[in-house]
Amino acid sequence: MIKIGIVGGTGYTGVELLRILAVHPDAEVKCITSRSEAGMPVADMYPNLRGHFDLAFSEPDSAVLAQCDLVFFATPHGVAMRMVPELMAAGVRVVDLSADFRLKDLDVWAKWYGMPHETPEWAQKAVYGLPEVARDAIRQAQLVANPGCYPTAVQLGFLPLLEQGLVDPTRLIADAKSGASGAGRQGNIGMLHGEIGESFKAYGASGHRHLPEIRQGLSLAATGPVGVTFVPHLVPMIRGIEATLYAELSEPADFDRLQALYEERYRAEPFVDVMPFGSHPETRSVRGGNQCRMALHRQEQSNVVIVSSVIDNLVKGAAGQAVQNMNIMFGLDETQGLKAPALLP
Amino acid sequence: MIKIGIVGGTGYTGVELLRILAVHPDAEVKCITSRSEAGMPVADMYPNLRGHFDLAFSEPDSAVLAQCDLVFFATPHGVAMRMVPELMAAGVRVVDLSADFRLKDLDVWAKWYGMPHETPEWAQKAVYGLPEVARDAIRQAQLVANPGCYPTAVQLGFLPLLEQGLVDPTRLIADAKSGASGAGRQGNIGMLHGEIGESFKAYGASGHRHLPEIRQGLSLAATGPVGVTFVPHLVPMIRGIEATLYAELSEPADFDRLQALYEERYRAEPFVDVMPFGSHPETRSVRGGNQCRMALHRQEQSNVVIVSSVIDNLVKGAAGQAVQNMNIMFGLDETQGLKAPALLP
Amino acid sequence: MIKIGIVGGTGYTGVELLRILAVHPDAEVKCITSRSEAGMPVADMYPNLRGHFDLAFSEPDSAVLAQCDLVFFATPHGVAMRMVPELMAAGVRVVDLSADFRLKDLDVWAKWYGMPHETPEWAQKAVYGLPEVARDAIRQAQLVANPGCYPTAVQLGFLPLLEQGLVDPTRLIADAKSGASGAGRQGNIGMLHGEIGESFKAYGASGHRHLPEIRQGLSLAATGPVGVTFVPHLVPMIRGIEATLYAELSEPADFDRLQALYEERYRAEPFVDVMPFGSHPETRSVRGGNQCRMALHRQEQSNVVIVSSVIDNLVKGAAGQAVQNMNIMFGLDETQGLKAPALLP
Amino acid sequence: MIKIGIVGGTGYTGVELLRILAVHPDAEVKCITSRSEAGMPVADMYPNLRGHFDLAFSEPDSAVLAQCDLVFFATPHGVAMRMVPELMAAGVRVVDLSADFRLKDLDVWAKWYGMPHETPEWAQKAVYGLPEVARDAIRQAQLVANPGCYPTAVQLGFLPLLEQGLVDPTRLIADAKSGASGAGRQGNIGMLHGEIGESFKAYGASGHRHLPEIRQGLSLAATGPVGVTFVPHLVPMIRGIEATLYAELSEPADFDRLQALYEERYRAEPFVDVMPFGSHPETRSVRGGNQCRMALHRQEQSNVVIVSSVIDNLVKGAAGQAVQNMNIMFGLDETQGLKAPALLP
């Protein structure tokens, strides 16, 4: 049994970790912390967990966390950065669901997150936890930076094109759409049902924190600089991200082998599903599941490759991918605890 | 491994059975029938099942079904009634999710369902599959009539009051609300997103097919005739039923022991959760789960008991309860395949 | 041109007043106040008003308000109570959309609103502004207490029955459902889209502030005490209230004349629409409009009258009814500015 | 009073025309046809129109339509094409909301709409009714082809860039999202609430009928061929389109004058609103209104211009624009009947 600690468990990522771990056969949640809600049973905040956990939120306590095998951070940025060194020293392994260890260029990190990075050595040592790219490194890692939700959907969709050098890497466009749970669970007027129900809009169109993370990942795949435009949008639903990706094929003739290329690239991946050419993945087809589902499109008179890629932002985009990383780190079946089909309808 | 057949699997109840059975350790779906979609892989219709089932819909074939241990009917009314006798003769056990075997008074059945009942002997033998009332009979049954969605939420909410004779049985009111999946998956203009999104209404307020089923169940609990008014409403969401129940307490003093009574009545029930007095159960707290969650309320200057009861109409109100019945019938742990927490948010 | 002031204009009721008044031919908004947003153009907060208003929110200023012909209060309770006397003294007329002047029994008011009433004399003088009951008094009133949203839907639905003494007044049940805009526009976690989307629940089931207001109105209609149980629910939509009302008919024979009674009662009312017997009013049929639409139902073997009554909580339940009251107070056509059909779909 | 006929009034475009015309001071609907619903009062199908229209749907009758001043076609493609010549001969003016007269290249039309065009001479004479481009021609036109919903949002967003030749016309991308009402009101399983609620997906990504219409309009603005990729998506809401447009600026220095250029281009347009640079238009800000609202964005290290453009697909994208065209054709104030602010929240 892997002994699990969760730091910062009151948000949607926290409850999603609990939901998944509640039926994971090899993991047991030993503590879940929240300064603001210390003492409250988790099932009082999240009634879907009634009968599944007796646990209450507790004040974060290094000594307690140090007795865990694995600690998940589901905190705002800036928290894991400060707590990680002590846990590392204690030999605890960490999967950080926040943004603290995702970027290697800490000047870029500081600019987008509005504070200097305090543990640059761990930022360099951290493994960016996209299993489809870094499975072997994850297996060995003590510290895994769990990818952001948008970056997961966008990178998985673009990877085969960039790895094979088939498209112009300076002209990538990622038009992404997310349900409201991506904004977390805070008393933000802009996220009221009355504000976002029955409406659709872009946000962060002049620049969003996930842009440098996307750029970093795509540059690695392309082995060189990329030019990517990323515009997120808010969808009046709770869960789900769809990213529609546009790239210019250098050789139009290559269209014929794209489908095979994608299928081949992801054949062995348990959580990436390439649908038939011309399909339209729906976010509901991954609701509650750890899949990334994608399909390719081409329009007449055009050499633009179109990829539509969907995930559940709280699962493959956060808690599910974190558990997938845990499974890899601890040598378990990678799909353990993540086998149930998505909830449709 | 229990060999499972599903008749009429293209609707929401069918896909929900598949979703649950996909990870049930003791059951294996051997065939799923649909006349209209014969030949189509189930994963083509329901992409959440990609990777979970290789099965395609097939024409219903008695010989194939006869080799199953258990057949679920997820068909419109009138179908199971005709196919059941042959399966019974073959020794197959059946859980019918349609309305064919729910009512004992076949004149009432004929009136509400617009056709004479063709297998009255089986209508009498069928066990009404509400485990909280009839667990022992279900265990022995060859034919189980799986309760309707509204009747499940309403009966479980009223049962303790009626069994103990604490309220006026002639003045029961059940104001119930359901998400849109309850209407099934047919090309019905009235169920378009454009018609029911951002709107709320009553329907069937002058009489709904679940009224006689509710009346039958409540009469059994009250051991006498009951007067019940039942008004269903359509909520602009997909899953979930909430029933707000009103009854007049005969002795106001009894208010003090109601909470204890409910907790006692359902203490051993794995799928009924009585929340603290004055709580407000949310349908999302049971989304995708097999729970019925309920709470009691009292208003000042009043002897009206208020019960709010929620279920997922596709799970405890249909497919989940059917699998619960299967577990009971085959001597399995009653919660097998039904242990995952609900999907919240 | 009626010169209008609005106190507390940043909430949903405020923007709704502006939306309606933007095209009202006889009224001109001279000032709109908000302490927290003073200086911000209203069109910056509410982009639907771009091009309609040059106005900015301003600090409340008695001198400015005193120059208006009519001041609307769209404030939390406790504000109008304190500001009204000065405006009354200045001869300004007021429509208060808050709860400050709705109840005549100020002990009850103090209990439900958690503070003593500070201007009891004006609480007595205020006219409860339900035009279908008090049109003549409204015409003369200097101070109108605009009814609450639930009380509007519930009272209009019950009135004909109580005025005619046809039902048992001690056994009234009002099961009401509202969209999320009824909770206003505050940073309340419980009203996030992530919390209430795709979910349904009761709230305030043990007692809600609109209960004494409903009781007061129904008692006046019944000319005697009434017993009413009122349970509100939250619907995952933005606008709309549906109330399903239950009452026991004293004489079952009276069913035959109920429809005619309702039609007669509301024949001359421009904003009450009695649909044919057995209809199901939808909230979308009144979205953005000032109508209350209702229909009657009866179930077999029952002497319970069922009334389903719908309004837009922000229009007939708040800003629209306030403008209707203004029209009456100033001798205008009662439908002025309120003629557009509801927005469907 | 302009005498109005509507052919094919049972869909969402039909009811929207009626909603707008109900309070238009200069127009009177004389007949509205529907073969399938002939005899049914329009208010029975659309209860928001109760009290506004006594009209019933009628069989289409050329003699009756010939007595109208203006006939709107709100029909599937192929219908207006056949009926228009007779109305033209009778001197009636027509605004066709279907696709029959939008394309000038009838081979392209035939390919996308699956039938040969039967009245090519009228296809050539028809004026494409985008007032911001063709106001003078519309004024004189006997036959106006009302633009499609996506093409309206996309063209208005791209026009200033193309007219000024500031961007590479071969690399235009339009990622567009629409509410469900765009699919009309038919018994289509794919448009059930249970299918599209709480989900998001692309559709028509390999080619959509609005692509050639967009290409035609943008080519005219660019005075030369354009390369445009257009991907529509389905949003779980009823009304609204948002289009996020991407184009490469030829001279990065031109960014500084883009905002002024857009403001200048649309300064005199009553229904186009250019928001401040970096704003995020919401579809709800135009719900029920005839506006197109847009804003510009730029990301660091990029010469991609991003435009976010929103409309209500049923208003500026259909019925509202049709009434705007009517106003122009008949010399009325162009905003007549279209002045009310959008419904927010």
Describe the structure.
Chains A, B, C, D: It is found in: Cytoplasm. Chains A, B, C, D: Residues 3-141 form the Semialdehyde dehydrogenase NAD-binding domain. Chains A, B, C, D: This is N-acetyl-gamma-glutamyl-phosphate reductase. Chains A, B, C, D: GO terms for molecular function: N-acetyl-gamma-glutamyl-phosphate reductase activity. 4 copies of one chain form a homotetramer. With 345 residues, chain A is an alpha/beta fold. Chain A folds into 2 domains: 2-125, NAD(P)-binding Rossmann-like Domain (Rossmann fold); 150-313, Dihydrodipicolinate Reductase, domain 2. In chain A, 32% of the residues lie in helices and 20% in strands. Chain A has helices at 12-21, 42-45, 62-66, 80-89, 106-113, 120-125, 131-140, 149-163, 193-196, 210-222, 255-266, 315-329, and strands spanning 2-7, 27-33, 57-58, 70-73, 93-96, 127-128, 143-145, 172-178, 201-202, 228-234, 241-248, 272-274, 292-297, 304-311. A 7-stranded parallel beta sheet of chain A has the order 3-2-1-4-5-7-6, sandwiched between helices. In chain A, a hairpin with a 6-residue loop joins strand 13 and strand 14. In chain A, helix 7 (131-140) packs parallel to helix 12 (315-329). The radius of gyration of chain A is 20 Å and the shape is globular. The two termini of chain A are 34 Å apart. The model of chain A has no long low-confidence stretch (mean pLDDT 97). Chains A and D meet through strand 8, strand 9, strand 10, strand 11 and strand 14 of A and strand 8, strand 9, strand 10, strand 11 and strand 14 of D.
